[in-house]
Amino acid sequence: MKAIVYKKYGSPDVLHLEEIEKPTPNDDEILVKVHATTVNRTDCATVRAKPFFMRLATGLFRPKKKVPGTEFAGEIETVGKNVSSLKVGEKVFGFDDDGSGAQAQYLTIKQDKAVTIPDGVTYEQAAASSEGAHYAYNFINKINLEKGQDVIVNGSTGAIGSAAVQLLKYFEVNVTAVCATKNIELVKSLGADRVIDYTKDDFTKDGKKYNYVFDAVGKSSFFKCRQLLKPGGIYISTDLGYMAQNIFLPFITPLIKSLMGNKMTVFPMPVDIKGSLALVKKLVEQGDFKAVIDREYPLEKITEAYRYVEKGQKTGNVVITVKH
Ligand SMILES: NC(=O)c1ccc[n+]([C@@H]2O[C@H](COP(=O)([O-])OP(=O)(O)OC[C@H]3O[C@@H](n4cnc5c(N)ncnc54)[C@H](OP(=O)(O)O)[C@@H]3O)[C@@H](O)[C@H]2O)c1
Prior knowledge:
Helix content is about 25%, strand content about 25%. By secondary structure, the chain is of the alpha/beta class. About 50% of the residues are buried.
């Protein structure tokens, strides 16, 4: 089969299209004929092994998994003997941030990291539906979100931000979205109640107060956003922040919360892939979620896709189409 292969960490130049052996599923795995995958920020971080500590999981000196990729959509070709939830011939999509080897014509994956694609949804749409939504949902399910609360989402046009706006509206909260002028209509179409154009206004100076500040692009900090929070409000970022402060602040801010107006930082660890996929599938079926797609590239041009995604300016998701 054709696959993107990398044997050392580095820039997108380390990625090469090669002919390799088709994988064989274990007893609890499925073999998927991949029709679409994506290049996302998780893939970029994995290929560069940045931040460095990622190597503890991906391989200290060189990548343990030779084929990159996390999100996929395709058709089940074979199932292992212990697979009960999925059948040969079903169209599925899924995700594994530990690496699913999706940037290839075939992959194998455990049955709980894939779900069937709702009728009428293309492989391209399905492939782009999981990574951003998974991280956004793992923000939402770590807090006690209540109907009618106020949330501001910075970076509302990224993969995570565009998913967060849609999920937050599903949970019936009031969403203020921060984006550039060119994307104002897009974020309104995703459900944002109010929009701040960051090219014209500094959102951290907004007069409105929020229960939650969600920095989905990691460009702010708890200290810059503190004044936006209501008493008891929570700041969450998708990024480690300057000197990895967002890892430490969740331990420090509860200790000094009386000095901070009872405001805190939370840094959620995204673990529940099964829960995220089940929710996304339901919302896609109900018409409450649609992945935003910026561009599509063929598998053969994947290095161009990586270079584009690494700029940090994609709108939603970048899809890779896989031909057979
Ligand atoms: N380390 C990891 O494994 C990992 C994995 C996933 C995500 N993340 C982190 O999560 C963050 C979001 O990822 P993502 O994939 O959702 O992002 P993304 O798709 O790369 O998108 C970034 C979006 O944010 C917008 N943006 C850029 N600068 C902005 C600013 N100053 N204010 C407001 N919006 C701005 C961009 O739009 P314009 O340029 O048009 O304004 C773009 O649409 C990233 O910071 C990434 O580091 C990390």
